[in-house]
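Service request form, structural biology core

Requester: graduate student, group of Dr. S.
Request type: structure prediction, single chain
Budget code: on file
Notes: please return the result as structure tokens.

Sequence provided:
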Amino acid sequence: MVRVMATGVFDIIHLGHIHYLRESKKLGDELVVVVARDSTARKNGKVPIFDENSRLKLVSELKPVDRAILGHEDDMMKTVVEVMPDIITLGYDQKFDEADLKRKLDQIGVNSRIVRISKYDGNLNSSSMVRKKIMELIGERF
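Core staff response, request fulfilled:
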């Protein structure tokens, strides 16, 4: 069985998220999705609208997802060791240096393949674009 791990904040679910998860699922038999903790999202400059437990519930209900878990606050590698994925997928816009990630995986003895998932070709394919569109629509009404 090939286990795939996808990660993200997953705030305001949109078609870009669905594309990322569908493409990730195609790579294996089981898709485990790691939802970022609120504190982790904030450390990376994101302020989630939905709290971590709500985002976890939303993600767990998506069709491609076999299992959704919350990530560790202090060390992503702890989550990797718990999941032991054969493949780790990264979204097109996730700020991971793939070579650095591979080095960290090697250091902890995890031999996961890293796959960067392509960008979804469509409108509103990122949370920031959705937020921007909402603000534009609100601005038009006032």
